[in-house]
Model the fold of this input.
Amino acid sequence: MDLLATVIEQQQQRFELAGLPPGWLRLLGVLILVGLCVVVIWLYRHEARSAAPPRLRMTLAGLRIAVLLLLAAVWLEPGVQTYTRQTIRARVAVLVDVSESMAVADVSRADAAGQDVRSRLSAVLSLLGDEDHAWLRRIAARNELHVYAFGRSTRAVALPFDAGQQAAPDAAGAIPFAALAAIRDDATDVGSAITRVLADAGEQPIAAIILLTDGGFNQGLNVSDAAAMLRRSQAPAIAIGVGQETEPPQLSILSLDAPPAPALNDPFELRVALAASGEVPRRVRLELHVRRLGDPDGAGDRLAEARTLDLTGDAASTDARFTLRADAAGDFLYTARATTLPGGEEPPPASAPGMRTAETDPVLPFGSGGVLAVRSRIVRIQDDPLAVLLVASRPTRDFLFVKALLERDRRVRLGVWLQSAEPGAIRDGDPPLAALPSEAPDLLTYDVLVLMDPDPGELGRAWCDLASRLTTELGGGVLLQAGPLHTQRLLADDQFASLAALLPISPDIDADVRQASRGAYQTTTWTLEADNATPPHPLLIRNARLDPVAGFDEARTQATAERVRTTWATLPGPHWLLPVAHAKPLASVLLHAGTPDGPPLFVVQPAGSGRTAWLGFNETWRWRAVDEPHFNAFWSRALHWLADRRKGADGRRTELVVEEDAPTVGQPVRISARLLDDRYEPLSTEPVTLRIEPERGPARHATLQPADARPGWLEGRALLTQPGPTRLSVLVTHAEGQHSGTGDPAAEKPDHDEGKPDPGEGTPTAARWILVEPHQAEQRARRLNVAELQQLTARRWVPLDAAQDVPDAIADATLERPAIRGTWRPLWDSAYAAVAAGVLLAVEWALRRRSGLL
Done:
């Protein structure tokens, strides 16, 4: 018997003869008893020993017969039997689909014309809740009612009224009925929902299982197996189909693009690409919200900007671009939310740029605005300036103007080493250098090395090896500008081979001979011929109005190859250049001298984790006479581009890499971490702990093992179980046995959270936020799947419009179980029976003695 069922018990008592023989033995017993009685009567009627009157003899015969009957009654074992009858109320389970596809608003032409647009779940809740939950009350009047919400998991729902039925033991854990509207599961598992209903019912009869769903089952058992389980359990199922059989209109945010690591207080751009299909209303409200991740002050979601867009046609798309400026460093979650507006509704005024709370300009509630699309992206705002080391053999004009430009740039921390300066000369830079950085802790702290015709005598093989490591392993950049004094010797000497191997060009061993043949002084200049690739490389685009880093995508969409070539052709070309043999296979030649096939002047290429550039002339300063903003933009963009990969990492000595750019919940991903100490040596050769902290959910841990093929790296796999922002941090054990788990821009600030000790000085650890995407299965097929509903319920399905008659179609399936025998109370096994027999025999004996019949 199921303890959760409503059971009505009734007890009855009934007189029974336990010793009554079965079948024909009963007749035989009666005949024997009657025969004995007849014999007794005959004997007393023919008693010849006394002249007792007939009446006395019949009285004695009656007493003897009474004794026989009493003995016969004892032999039949009379008693009182107690019976218990059980009546079990049948159960009706109402399963409400709360997956993301139920948030779809099926917009018809009438809806698009201005009528209210409701989501599928809103329509279901209206059916269940209208007229004080009359639909549910009609079901509960005949059978016991249970409501469940199902999607990725199945949860019991508390009834919104008192149905007068026994509460389940886990009723305290049931979710409130009003909470159904807020649930959005990223999958639909009908098999687990049916399994839960059958397990909860136990032996209780099931009158019906009612599923309110759109039939988009995409997890767990397939429909045929779920239907077979229903047939085995003999539980009748009825499906109420929600939605349209045609694909509903869809508003999608295709992408939310943002720079990975914009600088603090610099403008940067976020681009939102939207697409609409079907009969989506033309008016769309687009809101951009921002929230700081891990904010200790607990600040919530803030509205950055809102706009109203118009979409035309059956399949329309558009881009919206937001120019923002962050006033705080850290990791921020930017979320774009798009909501369709009914055609006749006036949109709320678009907010001006700036940070305002969502309460002052709220997001339209779902259902009042129709189809909803959401996409998020994590952006790290960097407050660490770009570290540039400028090394020059002599103070050329390019050196002087570039140094002045970088000194004025607040986003740059500049180190300057002029090799021709006198010993003891006052050095420039922040801080001024007393010597050329040549040790790993000194040189590898820089992001970009700018070498202007450097004197190789001061560099050496070890210095070049460090420069190579900075680029290939640590993601930094190297720019070598050629000059007539030292560059050819630098490229030709084998001890500088590691530096030459980074460059995007192969040197010409006869370059100095070719230059000597042209003469030391030239009166003609080479023209600048820009690469004609489409789209143009971002380093070629002149757009001073855009941020040098964040404006790449914007500029590339606006510029054309012809405009770029025209712009560069107007700039003064060089009088001198250093010929090279050719560009390397992976290199991009951005500027040629004279013709599209002329000598390479400006060449870039990836080099391991970083980037390198070759500038084959030293007269960019001449551009300032024609277009000074172009000179400034060229150098600023080039340096930021070279360091782009390192600035996007988690730190100069730490890096945490996730294999997937957008991992999906439930997907195991490979995670790699590089941990270096203050001398840029591997921090740990032992396994370390990776802490996985979802923003909403318990923290989990995984182990990263040292990678044999990659010194300094640790690798492992982790399972991401919660969608949304998740913080990954590597915990490194200190000598004292403590752990440190910081490595973000706020790593230098003490962490006072309970259970998190302060990070140890000089021990870096890696940390970063990633965005775990929910499953996209709910977005693939969003129409009403009638075929699945028919297969699951053996064609017992109705559309939502006809669901009002469903409660009347469910009969009262109350089960009456057979009576159960209870206690037995014997009537013969008592002193009364013995006394009665003794009294009868004593009276007979007394009468016989008195009458002389002894």
Residues 109-115, 343-369, 544-559, 735-764 have pLDDT under 50 and may be disordered.
